[in-house]
UniProtKB/TrEMBL annotation:
Gene3D superfamilies given in the database record: SH3 Domains (2.30.30.40)
Protein known as: PhnA protein N-terminal proteobacterial domain-containing protein
Native organism: Photobacterium ganghwense
Entries under Pfam families matching the protein: YjdM
Domain PhnA protein N-terminal proteobacterial, first and last residues per copy: 8-52
Amino acid sequence: MSIESIVKQRSGEQCELCTSTEGLSVYEVPASPDATAGSCVMVCEKCRSEIEDAETLDQNHWRCLNDSMWSQEPAVQVMAYRMLNRLASETWAQDLLDMMYLEEDTRQWAEKGMLSDEDKPRDVNGVELKKGDDVTIIKDLPVKGSSMVIKQGTAVRGISVTDDPKHIQGKVNGQTMFIIAEYCRKK
């Protein structure tokens, strides 16, 4: 049986976080210890988009974690823990976190995949860079594999963050490329 069929059957064909039945897909939990169905959750489109883009968090949608945090599936527990930590500034989310119990190995998995402040891209002044920010290049940067040079003062609009906190992604002269975050200044 495929991972998708196992997760679909386990979830009862509904989102394991919010119980929606629309736009479902299998989501592999980042920093999983293995690549089995046990490291995946069934999520709806809304949950997936908010998991992948922290800027779009709808706090009220995530009140569903009040139920899903008690799931017997470690992958669901991990996702609930991570999302509650993102929402920890909300009183209700902090209350749920205080009540939540995770086995030690599940807690380690959950914490391993969370971004800490050191894991966020920062510009030359230490300012955190987020998706959609505009930056200015602070020094001439040669582009690997080409003779192109990104000139000092070049504006890069609407950047994307990457899995590597040292790099951001943006369009320069019509080409999408990776740029070292510390050679940028947020506008």
